[in-house]
Each structure stands twice: as C-alpha cells, then as structure tokens.
Amino acid sequence: MNKKWMKTGLLFLWMILLPGSLWAAEGPAVDSGITAWMLTSTALVLLMVPGLALFYGGLVRTKNVLGTMMHSFGAMAVIGVLWVVCGYAFSFGPNALGGWIGWNPSLLFLNGIDNKIMNAGIPEYVFAMFQGKFAIITPALIAGAFAERVRFRAYCIFIALWSLLVYNPLCHWVWAKDGFLFNLGANGAIDFAGGTVVHISAGVTALVCAFYLGRRRGYPKTAMLPNNLVLTLLGAGLLWVGWFGFNAGSSVSSGLDTARALTVTQVAAAAGALSWMLIEAFKHKKATSLGVASGILAGLVAITPAAGVVKPIGAIALGFGASLICYFAIAVKNKLGYDDSLDVFGIHGIAGIFGAIFLSFFIRESWLHEAAALAGGSWTVFQQLGVQMIAVLVTILYTVSVSWVLVILVEKVFGFRIPVREEMAGLDQSLHGEHGYGLLNMN
Asked: Which residues are CB-contacts of 159 (< 8 A; sequence separation ≥ 6)?
C-alpha cells in the first residue's frame, strides 16, 4: 500500500515538473552571473544622469543651477516613459520603412518580452532597461549647449521628438542586427558603447541648437562663471564610475570582453585627465579642476566606441589624443564666439568623432582576423577606417538635417528660447519658482 502511494506521489510530482522542464528546454536559461552584472550596469548608467546634472549644474550661474539640473532629470522622466511605449520597438525591432527604423508591435510597452530570455542568458527586460538608460542620457547631454536660455516645456517636447526621429533610427542602424551600419563592411561599423549613437549625435545636435538659438544675453562680454565647481567635480566622478557600466555593460556578458572594456575605460579616463593637466601646466603653469573634469570626459567619450576592440596602449593614445583635440576645439569656439554653453560639441562631439575614427589604428589583431574570415579574405586597418568614416559621416549628416528641422519647429510652434526678462531673472525662479541656494542673492 505504501509503495502504491509512493508511485502515485512520484507520478504526480513528475506531472507538475514536466511542463517546467519542457519550457526550459525551449530556450536559453537565465545566467544569474551575467544577469547580475547587467542589472548592476543598468544602475551604473542611470547613475550617470544625476552625475551629469551635477556636472552641468555646477558650471552655470547661481540663478540657473536648478533649471539646468532639471534638464537631466526631465530626460529621465520623458524618455524613461517614451522608451517603454515605443522607443525600444523602433530601435530593436526588425527593419521597417526601408531600414530607416525598426518596428515590432509586440515590443510596444514591452508587451512581447515578458517571458523572453535572450541568447546571452539575460531576461530581455534587463537588456531593454539597459539600453533605455542610453536613450535617456543622450538628449540630456544636448542640454548643456543651450543651458540658461530655453523653456523647460519646449525642451521636453524637443527631446521627445529628437529621441523618436534621431536617436531611435541611429540606434537601429548601428546596434540592431539588421541595421545597415551594423552590417557595413566585413564586421560592421564599430561602436561598442555609443560613440556615434550617443556622443556624436548629441554633440552635433548641440552645435545646431547653439547656432540657431543664439547666445546667452551678455555673452561673451559678461563673465558667466561657474557657480560651484565642487558640484562639477563630483559630477565628473560619478560619470567616471557610471561609465564602467556604460562601456563594460555593453559587452552583454560577464567575462573576458567585460574585463577588457572595463580596463580600457579606466585607462582612457586617466589618460585624458593627465593630458589636460599637462596641457594646462605647459600653457598656464597650473592645472585647474575644470580642466581635469574636462579631460576625464574627453577620455571617456573617446574610448566609448573603442572599448571592445582596443588594448590599454590604444586607450592611452585615445585618451591623450582626445584631450588635446578637445582643448583646441574649445579654444576655437571661444574665438568664433558661438555659445555652446557647456562645450557639448567641443567635448562629446569632437572626442566622439576622434574615438570613432582613430580606434581603427589600435584594433586588436584578433578582431581583424575575425573580420577577414567574415570577408572571405583579408581585412585591413585602412578598410575598417573607411567603414568608420562612413558611419561618422552618415551620423553627422542625418543628425544635422533632422535636428535643424526640429529646433526650428519647436522654436516656431512652442517658443524654445526664453524671453529676455525671464532669462535675466534666471531659470530657477522664472520656470520653476525655486532657488537653488535658499535665500542667497541670485546673480
């Protein structure tokens, strides 16, 4: 009798476990190690957004500190929702409209990925949220170009349209498996973590906005000094830490490629900071905190597209080179007199272009061998250089064209530029009814 009941119990247990066993056999299992790292990376990239808010907030005048920081936090809200509603579907769905955009209705509101495990061993929810943080920080970067002189409402409308019409298509072209830049050449245009998709697009758009919207009232005759460089340094430190998730997380793994990306990220940031310090020491006999922060960013931006394909020596070269070229790009801006308030183009745009192109000279031989095998013959540094230059040129031309139309549209319909009286009073009081530093006199 006991044996009969035992057999019945085992049969019942087998019937319960069988569906789960069959379901597990249908697709990849969750890799808890990789998933844990990707969850951490997602949080690190999100940390970069308040880091950017501190970085930008410290660089503007006292009366605009909250208004400037709100640009970063506003992007977290606007793009955070828009990405889930349709951004992910547009970016990573299969080709639509001739490959201009992706499209998969099941990805709207992330409905179709509730039970999906990717081949990398992570739930697709994690990948979608990781990529969503890139979509958030990219338009937030642009805001530095027109800091202290735009309406918050118009800014929110602009970044929503820009995300849909610029960021999502670029993301699809470069990172979706059927994107045309992903498949350009032997092994695609190299953009490991966002040199073209994030930094060139943001930097070029920043330049367009700075030219169209015009200078801040009084610029450059009136001194517009940073209100708090302590905040800026703190923001730079948070960006440096968060960038490990930005770059190393883009491996979508937890192994050798992750370790390589993390290492070169650290090396390039340090090289960029050291390079800027040496330039200032040579020219001015002193190193500034703002210079160190700028060098950190220049190095980080330059290594972003290259993090998966270069060795530490290449990271040093890219970090040093990016700081040098960005330093002189900012000097040229000052001579030309256009008002890119926080040097978004001078750092993100220039270092992004530099890194995306010059990574070609530091690519690992193993990567070139892999590309040659895919090409069915040989693949040289100069062939990849051609691919990289095409990707950069396409990104610049497309971004300039669409961004110019969008900034004109938003200005004409909603009024992008803030009125003179409100600009002189400051964004904090005029747009948000607050003061960043309590009862201190705003100046």
From this structure: 74, 75, 78, 79, 139, 140, 142
